[in-house]
Predict the 3D structure of the following.
Amino acid sequence: MRECDILVVGCGPAGLSAAQYASRAGYSVIATDALAPGGQMLYIDEIENYPGEEKTSGYALSEKMEKQAVSFGVDIAYSEVTSIEKDGKLFIAHTSDDDIKAKSVIWAAGARHRELGCNGEKEYQGKGVSYCATCDGPFFKGRDVVVVGGGDTALTDALYLSKLCSSVTLVHRRTEFRAQKVLQDRVRAKDNIKLELGKNVQSINGNGKNVESVTLTDGTEIKASAAFIFVGIIPNTEAIRDFAEMENGFIKTDSSMRTSIGGFFAAGDVRTTPFRQVVTAASDGAIAAHSADEWIQNL
Ligand SMILES: Cc1cc2nc3c(=O)[nH]c(=O)nc-3n(C[C@H](O)[C@H](O)[C@H](O)COP(=O)(O)OP(=O)(O)OC[C@H]3O[C@@H](n4cnc5c(N)ncnc54)[C@H](O)[C@@H]3O)c2cc1C
């Protein structure tokens, strides 16, 4: 069994930031990732909204964050945490390799977007298919785009895109939206948002490099440079289902990243939060490390 003061689960921006802060404060830190350090940043072709980085790739930003964390002494591990249990005041994490004993755990395992599963969706990811309007909307300024979904996120982001794009076609499989009434009223009042209700997306089409249109199940073809898909987000909490208190699968925290379990903190996309970005994840990580520091000092 390996031992450390603070175990960080997930090496996306939340985890790398938490690990860096904790290690710099003098704690022994293991940060482990089931795949590779970087998390969702590895899928960002171009990021232009991380403060201090005018334009860079998500991969380059990941490398910098990892290098900085390692320079402060973080031990990066490549294993998946499959469950966590309490052992007195300590925690034991069972992983795909060794078990790890820690005084505090920061769960920063992120989330993944639910996919539509239509033809062309995978092929055009990063080439016009997007799951984040704040991230990619500005790349489609003045263009025609499609938004798919009927919940609060889909309608909020359709409104956001309607300010940047020349037209937004909002496609929803049902004839009624799930989103709040106030959002529905705002969407219906927008001249440049067109509704296609009671229809599914059949395919996302393009020339191999960029999205050019979206075809609906009734055969309608919509000219569009991008398809923004908002049909749900899945938190990576399967391994800790009954451990800490959750809301719709996301870990409930207070503003100090404390969960319902003392010494167990959560940071980034995996927690209940109104905004999921690299900068917010990094900020959560720093706060979680600070709270873990306080917890260990009082053990
Ligand atoms: C295509 C795309 C474009 C984006 N563009 C932008 C943008 O332009 N600007 C912006 O600010 N944000 C953007 N985002 C959002 C941003 O990437 C996320 O909000 C951010 O990465 C969340 O960070 P996180 O550390 O909370 O989680 P993640 O980045 O999801 O990292 C979590 C890590 O935990 C690991 N993990 C999961 N479960 C386990 C486990 N059980 N054991 C061990 N490891 C585990 C995963 O492998 C992953 O590496 C984009 C996202 C995507 C997908």
Remarks:
- Residues 129-229 form a domain with the FAD/NAD(P)-binding domain fold (CATH 3.50.50.60).
- The mean pLDDT is 96.
